[in-house]
Design goal:
The complex is a heterodimer of chains A (510) and B (1017). Chain A is α/β, with parallel strands linked by helices. Chain A contains 19 helices and 16 strands. Classes of the chains: A alpha/beta (510), B alpha/beta (1017).
């Protein structure tokens, strides 16, 4: 690929794909998908370090050879960021790591995050997965960015010129950070406001260290600071910083507050001691790993029977953290039925996201998983301490209306003993703090902030990420941040040269 | 190109918009489509017939051609037109040798104000004129002087404009044009700039890019810059030869300023000023619009905030890149809807495609139906009667797997549509129906220039015989199946040696004119009179006239194929830059046929990126009563548009012969049937809405289409599509669709007498003999008889000599064409062209009339192109043959006493013994078989083409083989030369040269055992 020719005036669409077979044309026939071996679960539950050993370049090279450089790269379509996956696979195959990080950085500000914690919709839509196992795209992505950091390819790149425009970004999760990076790149002065004591949002306190070590986050934040972005922690907009102040002091405000209001489980016994939201539990542990002391009352799993309610990624994180804290037993329950091991080709065909049983690394570390279980009641002792969870098995059926419903299976009601119950059943939307009220923002039907091309109902105030689209993936948050940055840049400048995942740079305006 | 030295190859069709419809800034040369030869004259094979091609070019003043003086010679000779920077410097350094030059800066003010580009052009024209007045001999048009305030004038535009301005001022011949161009890098760019007047081009930015790439270690080979540049020059040079040859032009000097392009979407002002005389039917952009396109790229270069160039996306689908009809969603919906028989999901797919076409991806997307009184869908003809109008595209077994090929055939046979064999022959096991009623036989058998596996039996097993004059993806070009893809199976089906590469020549060597085409149609009709004869053309300006000629040549059907059609492997510049979309060609063909009252005699068919019922309805209204679908049908079978067909690594088992990959094929005839039913239902819905009960009523009703008014993109608003919707006023009684059968006058053919004679042979295999006089109006003798044999006795035919017929006289064209096993024709006299064409196992003997006085070995007694595409049989010719003897022979054993130029060209099998002289370019492109040439004067080494063969001495086994053939020759013809050679065998056998293809030898060596066995025998 020729994408690394810099600044040649009349060459913009020099599309040479196909001119040279990319990668290895028969790599997918010769090599199988192979992920690096993880550290032994028995060993790794004793610490909070990442579960993968350091990179093996030869292994990455071989895995990159499996990319087929498809004429219609479904992975590139499946990636919410529009990563040019065949292009960076090819660069890796040819050992051109510097080109690879350049191609990757073009669409993704933080490959070191997505390379670790993304569920990888790209791999789900990889053409190879039609009848084989997909290319290890996420692993290659991580390899690229880690190699780049190790070799010093990623240096601070402050903008050459400043526009003088000032932007306030509220929230420092992946959406806020991506918006900040992009707007700074376009030459605007960016200040990020974070209510917590550290920058990073969910990346900092939501995702356990064994999945994303925080030095990875700090490394990126240092770069961003060196590029000129200002970070303000303990700045809770709407509380100790007024939203009005922002709109007055800044030329634009971008709200990236996330969808952090957790979904509750309003069943009897909810108030018992030992029933907590997953996020409270996870945040505390992340703080401990960072060396902080917990003042608000420890939530710990040690020597307890733990029950995790909810079968998603957050639930999985609770399982991993509980095991690390020394839980006596960990049980995870899920309302939905156990998904099949292979996808249903009729109802759930490629390249859609496969609705199949997903076993995470945390599951490997020990857990009892149960599906099709309805929670009836938290049971406690005389001290209001949780002692068990009353559940019943259910059976899912498709009703006459075509909608799925369930019935309880008679005689299956029982109590699972537990001393700690963690609610990992999703989020309901933005925490409607004072910002919404103070600025008078309109909300949409689902309670998210209503926007038109990322602009809220208030002039100069934009919104990006979960606060706008509801709970989603980190990769979507980064995408939101990037697209919003472009909208803000265009709002300032009348047009924008910042990348957008679906807009050609040589398009002819209507 | 810099790394490998050849133009990149790609596969599948071009599903991106025309340049004028694109919402991306496109290179100006993309507005120009290359023209190509079809039927009216043959294209050339620039590789195997390289001797007629030249890239030589001259720079300088040309003087009056009617005078002669020493000054006439004062021009700079350049061996090829791609100038390196050092070459340009040399050119400039020749100033003091009497070649003064001027450099003109081809830039314009980049402030976006109207008229700037025109101003720039006016300035450079003036400067050019002044340079001529100042006595300059060389004009260098340079776009080097760009900066943030000045954008480059596209080199094609500056060259064309200056060229025409100088002509207008009658000074063009005083000066040579050289472009120093940053915007010229691929073959098509060179072709256009040369085609509009430049003698040579210095592509400095491309060269600089090659240098940078080389520096950064992108090339896998360890190349010096010099080698990389040389590779690039070679690749561009060969690409230019290919572009020229597809029009039948041999030399770059004739190509220069020839303007052999059709422009799509430029305004009359631009055409008349800068590209005068170019065919341009659709009005479009003016100078300011072209400036806008340039400025988008110019500004981006100065404002870009990233270090990356935009991703492109012309060939590979990219989210940010050019739009493609086949996006991931569309592929998924199409596959899932047909797999689960879900018409609603199909509608979603169709909606997306139709929306995309409306989003300016295709010309038809800019059209809409006029409102008409609708009818109930129940009154519309049923899907079953629509099915027979469907065909799948021509894809050969070889380019796609057996599984993929037969799945389409089974599906089409189930619904009564037609699948197409492609040009690779067909395995005879497919001719027998399966116990469950399924049939793998392709209803359409293609006859292409390679004639692979075209036997009497093959032709007999068809409902339609399609003569492929051109292919949308690479009109005017041939093809090549590399030896490693020719496995045992494909080798057998194509009547070729496994492991030996197979070449499809660009031209049909039996079609150099419309009369020749008429002859081939006649041959095929004789070979299977139940089959419809279809001629496949590719859309381009003038295809209407060609179609009229083809209709008069008595084709039953004409296919107008869109240039955007698919391919298993073609040079990328051909996929994208040659030919036109079907809308233009179909409309022209239909109206021309109506005008000449020929329309009612032929069925018009069209194909090329057809995807939905709406596409089909528009095709019908523009004149096509039948429609072909290929790519979409492949997608239904599982194709995911890898565009890797040429690499044999198709991961879904379609475009591959790899047994492991073929196992991954999941296509199913049911899904394909579902797809065609959806298409038919979709069409019926459109028909009901438009108030049509039958398809026939719709044909050619262009009056029911109009250009959409709701398109607001400025680029499209400038388009003037009315020529597309022109409707010829048909006189009363002039049919608008096929109603009348062509009259081939088959009742007059000599073969009826042969069939009569052979009654017992046909019924009981009893030997028969007969004698007939013959004259040159007796054409295609033997084809109809062979058809009867093939029907009864299949491929193996009758035992040798069962039907022995002696003729006396002068045989017409195609004597013994497709003649089947068991036939022996003995001709006393002489024969016209195409003797033994497609010979399928028969024995042909010819010797001069006993009353003739000439010396046979010195005179031609059979015409040109004998045994073209012959697959088996024997032949003994007492006399000389014309040119291209045994061209593409793959199995015939022939003895002849001399041949004209290009003997044994593209031969892939068989044995040829030549007892006399050969012409030039002997054995060009010969990849298989052996020729033994009696060469006492050692002239063959001067005459043969050494590209693929070696000259050797005969070994003992060869001598045994040649001796046996010559003995038979003497036995049948009483030949004097044969007599002498046999009498003096010890001496004579040493004077033979064995012409041995290197590929073939390598394959034989691999099978050493087999060779050894032969020697023992």
């Amino acid at each position: 690929m020729l994408t690394f020719l810099i600044g040649l005036s009349d060459f913009p669409t020099f599309d040479l794909i196909g001119s040279r077979p990319m990668g290895q044309t028969d790599g997918f026939i010769k090599f199988n998908r192979e992920m690096p071996k993880t550290r032994d679960p028995k060993e790794r539950i004793n610490d909070y370090k990442e579960i993968y050993p350091p990179l093996n370049e030869e292994h990455v090279h071989q895995q990159s050879a499996r990319c087929m450089d498809c004429g219609v790269p479904f992975c590139h379509n499946g990636c919410p960021l529009g990563n040019n996956i065949p292009d960076f696979n090819d660069a890796v195959y040819h050992g051109k790591w510097e080109d690879a990080i350049r191609i990757l950085s073009e669409t993704n500000n933080f490959p070191e995050f997505t390379g670790r914690i993304c569920p990888a919709p790209c791999e789900a839509s990889c053409v190879l997965s039609i009848n084989n196992k997909p290319v290890t795209i996420e692993y290659i992505e991580k390899a690229i960015v880690e190699t780049a950091f190790a070799n010093g390819y990623l240096k601070p790149q402050p903008p050459k010129a400043r526009t003088g425009k000032r932007v306030a970004i509220v929230g420092s999760g992946p959406a806020g950070l991506a918006a900040a990076a992009q707007l700074n790149k376009a030459g605007h002065w960016v200040t990020v406001f974070e209510r917590s004591d550290r920058i990073g949002g969910l990346l900092r306190y939501g995702i356990p260290d064994f999945k994303l070590e925080k030095n990875v986050l700090d490394r990126r934040l240092r770069l961003m600071e060196q590029e000129g972005i200002i970070f303000r922690t303990n700045a809770n907009v709407g509380e100790n910083v007024s939203a009005k102040f922002l709109t007055e002091e800044f030329d634009a405000v971008v709200l990236c507050g996330g969808a952090s209001a957790p979904r509750d489980l309003p069943i009897p016994g909810r108030e018992l001691k030992g029933v907590h939201y997953a996020m409270e539990f996870l945040t505390q542990q992340n703080k401990r790993v960072a060396g902080d002391r917990i003042f608000s009352g420890d939530i710990l799993a040690d020597n307890k029977n733990v029950i995790v309610i909810g079968g998603g990624d957050t639930g999985s994180d609770c399982v991993g953290t509980s095991n690390r804290q020394g839980a006596k037993s960990v049980t995870q329950i899920e309302l939905l039925a156990k998904p099949p091991v292979t996808r249903n080709q009729e109802t759930n065909p490629w390249p859609n996201w496969p609705m199949v049983l997903n076993t995470s690394s945390s599951h490997e570390e020990g857990v009892q998983r149960n599906w099709a279980i309805l929670t009836k009641e938290f049971v406690g002792d005389h001290m209001n301490r949780l002692t068990g969870l009353k559940v019943v098995d259910i059976e899912w059926q498709v009703g006459e209306s075509g909608k799925a419903g369930f019935i309880e299976r008679a005689g299956t009601e029982r109590i699972i003993p537990c001393e700690l119950a963690l609610l990992a059943i999703g989020f309901t939307g933005a925490e409607r703090g004072n910002v919404v009220q103070e600025l008078g923002l309109e909300l949409d039907d689902r309670g998210n902030i209503k926007t038109t091309n990322y602009l809220t109902s208030v002039e100069g105030v934009f919104a990006a990420g979960d606060i706008r689209r509801g709970q989603s993936l980190v990769v979507w948050a980064i995408s939101e941040g990037r697209e919003t940055a472009r909208a803000v840049d265009a709002y300032f400048m009348g047009g924008s040269q910042l990348e957008s995942k679906d807009l050609s740079q040589v398009r002819i305006s209507a | 190109m810099a790394e490998k030295g050849y133009e990149p190859v790609g596969s599948m069709g071009d599903d991106t918009p025309l340049a004028v419809l694109s919402k991306e800034s496109r290179h100006l040369s993309n507005y120009f489509k290359q023209q190509f030869a079809q039927v009216s004259n043959p294209p050339i094979d620039p590789i195997r017939e390289r001797l007629v091609m030249s890239l030589f070019t001259r720079v300088g003043a040309s003087l009056n051609v009617l005078e002669e003086s020493a000054d006439h010679t004062r021009q700079i000779h350049i061996s090829q037109p791609v100038l390196l920077n050092s070459d340009l410097a040399k050119l400039k350094n020749m100033e003091d040798q009497g070649y003064p030059y001027a450099v003109i800066d081809c830039v314009f003010v980049a402030d976006g104000k109207p008229g700037r580009l025109k101003e720039g052009l006016n300035r450079i024209c003036e400067e050019a004129c002044q340079a001529v007045k100042a006595g300059k001999r060389i004009l260098i048009l340079s776009d080097q002087k760009i900066n943030s305030g000045h954008a480059p004038i596209p080199s094609l535009l500056s060259t064309g404009t200056v060229h025409h301005y100088l002509i207008e001022n009658k000074v063009r011949t005083h000066i040579g044009l050289v472009a120093e161009a940053g915007d010229v890098w691929e073959v098509h760019h060179f072709a256009t700039v040369i085609g509009y007047g430049a003698s040579a081009i210095n592509p400095y930015l491309a060269l600089e890019t090659i240098h940078t790439l080389n520096q950064s270690g992108v090339f896998q080979k360890n190349l010096s810059d010099r080698e990389a540049f040389a590779n690039y020059q070679k690749a561009i040079g060969n690409g230019l030869l290919k572009v020229m040859s597809k029009m039948g032009i041999s030399t770059l000097q004739s190509y220069q300023s020839s303007q052999i392009f059709e422009a799509i979407g430029l305004s009359t002002e631009v055409i008349d000023t800068s590209f005068r005389g170019t065919i341009s039917r659709i009005e479009g952009l003016g100078y300011d619009d072209l400036a806008t396109e340039v400025l988008i790229r110019h500004q981006l270069a100065y404002d870009l905030q990233s270090n990356e160039l935009p991703a492109g996306g012309i060939y590979q689908w990219k989210r940010k890149g050019e739009k493609h009809l086949f996006s991931p969603d569309v592929i998924h919906w199409l596959q899932h809807s047909t797999k689960t028989d879900n018409f609603e999901l199909y509608k979603k797919y169709a909606q997306k495609i139709n929306d995309q076409t409306r989003e300016q991806l295709t010309l038809r997307g800019l059209l809409e139906f006029k409102k008409r009184k609708s009818v109930s869908i129940d009154e519309v003809e049923p899907v079953e009667s629509i099915f027979k109008r469907f065909a799948t595209g021509a894809m050969s077994f070889g380019s796609i797997s057996f599984e993929a090929h037969t799945t389409l055939a089974i599906a089409m046979n189930r619904i009564g549509g037609k699948s197409n064999s492609g040009e690779g022959g067909e395995d005879e096991i497919r001719y027998e129906q399966k116990p469950n009623g399924d049939w793998e036989r392709s209803a359409i058998k293609q006859v292409a220039s390679g004639r692979f596996g075209v036997t009497s039996y093959y032709l007999t097993n068809a409902d339609e015989l399609q003569i492929k004059m051109a292919q949308g993806a690479k009109p005017g070009e041939g093809g090549q199946l590399p030896g490693d893809k020719v496995d045992e199976w494909i080798g057998r089906v194509r009547h070729a040696t496994p492991g030996v590469g197979l070449i499809s020549p660009p031209p049909h060597h039996d079609i150099y004119s419309i009369e020749d085409l008429a002859q081939l149609i006649y041959d095929l009709k004789n070979a299977n009179r139940q089959a419809r004869i279809n001629v496949k053309l590719v859309s381009q300006a003038g295809v209407g006239t060609v179609a009229a000629g083809v209709a008069k040549a008595k084709a039953d059907a004409i296919l107008i194929s869109g240039a955007d059609g698919g391919t298993g492997a073609s040079p990328i510049s051909s996929i994208r830059h040659a030919g036109l979309p079907w809308e233009l060609g179909l409309s022209e063909a239909h109206q021309t046929l109506v005008k000449n009252n020929l329309r009612s005699r032929v069925t018009l068919q069209t194909d090329g990126q057809i995807r939905t019922g709406r596409d089909i309805a528009i095709a019908a209204l523009l004149g096509a009563e039948e429609w072909g679908v290929a790519t979409a049908a492949l997608v239904v079978e599982g194709c995911i548009m890898m565009r890797k067909c040429h690499l044999n690594t198709c991961p879904v088992g379609i475009a591959t012969q790899d047994p492991e990959l073929r196992k991954l094929f999941t296509g199913n005839p049911d899904h394909v049937v579902n797809f065609f039913r959806f298409l038919a239902e979709d069409l019926r819905e459109v028909m009901a809405e438009l108030g049509f009960r039958t398809v026939n009523e719709m044909i050619g009703r262009t009056d029911l289409l109009r250009v959409r008014q709701d398109v607001d993109h400025w680029k499209v608003k400038k388009l003037y599509l009315s020529p597309l919707l022109y409707k010829e006023n048909a006189a009363e009684g002039v049919g608008l669709f096929k109603q009348i059968d062509q009259d081939f006058e088959l009742e007059r053919v000599l073969d009826w007498k042969l069939v009569e004679l052979s009654r017992e042979a046909l019924d009981q295999s009893t030997p028969v003999t007969g004698k007939f006089t013959i004259q040159n109006t007796d054409r295609s003798v033997g084809a109809l008889l062979s058809n009867e044999i093939s029907k009864r006795f299949k491929g193996k035919g009758l035992p040798e000599d069962t039907i022995h017929v002696k003729f006396r006289g002068s045989a017409g064209q195609s004597f013994g064409v497709f003649a089947a096993p068991g036939i022996t024709f003995e001709l006393q006299g002489e024969a016209n062209d195409y003797f033994g064409k497609g010979l399928s196992g028969a024995k042909l003997i010819v010797y001069p009339d006993k009353d003739s006085s000439f010396k046979p070995e010195d005179n031609i007694i059979i015409g040109n192109v004998a045994f073209y595409g012959a697959t088996s049989g024997e032949a003994y010719i007492r006399g000389m043959a014309g040119e291209r003897f045994c061209v593409r022979n793959s199995g015939v054993h022939a003895v002849v006493e001399g041949v004209g130029d290009h003997g044994c060209e593209y031969m892939t099998g068989g044995r040829v013994v030549i007892l006399g002289k050969t012409g030039k370019n002997f054995a060009a492109g010969m990849s298989g078989g052996i020729a033994y040439v009696f060469d006492p004067e050692h002239t063959l080494k001067e005459l043969y083409n050494p590209e693929m063969v070696d000259l050797e001495r005969m070994d003992e086994a060869d001598k045994v083989e040649a001796h046996a053939m010559i003995e038979k020759h003497f036995h049948y013809t009483k030949s004097d030369p044969a007599d002498w050679i046999l009498e003096n065998w010890d001496l004579a056998s040493e004077l033979f040269v064995k012409v041995m293809p290197r590929d073939y030898k390598a394959v034989l060596l691999k099978k050493g055992v087999v060779v050894a066995e032969k020697v023992v025998k």
